[in-house]
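Model it.
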Amino acid sequence: MSFAAQFELLDPKLHANKVFDCGNDEMNQFLKRYADKNRKLGLSSTWVLPEQYGDGSEQKMKLGSYYTLASSTVTREEVPQDKKLPAYPVPVVLLVRIAVDKHYQKQGLGKKTLITALRKAAELTEKGLPALGVVLDVLDSDALSFYQIFDDFQPFDNNPMRLFISMKVINQLG
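Modeled.
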């Protein structure tokens, strides 16, 4: 099965988000029940990578992976940088969720989804959404092992399960 050329904003009329299964009930339920509601409320946006059907099928497209981004702020004391920052909260992009369907795990799709999410955060920043970097909360030790493959993430606020990557570093990604 091949995937669409790029990630798309979740549209439950087109995407089969109800059958997505990454093996984690909380992540599955978010996509099934809350992702579209949160978008409509202006809280977050979820992008999905749908399977590509070449037969002109009218059925909803199954999903290989998804990620969710939201805006947030942090204090300068939390940011792992030497840069002098203002005393008031600074904006960041929060990588709220990232998941790969069980059928596609351990095939490189997680890395592709993460890189795409980081690039989308940088794109949004370039288009006017100010952000110093991306913050993400690590779900468990397996997820932490995945993120540790990338040397660019730093523990956020001295918490190894909360990571940070600056926009400067994201913009240097190939």
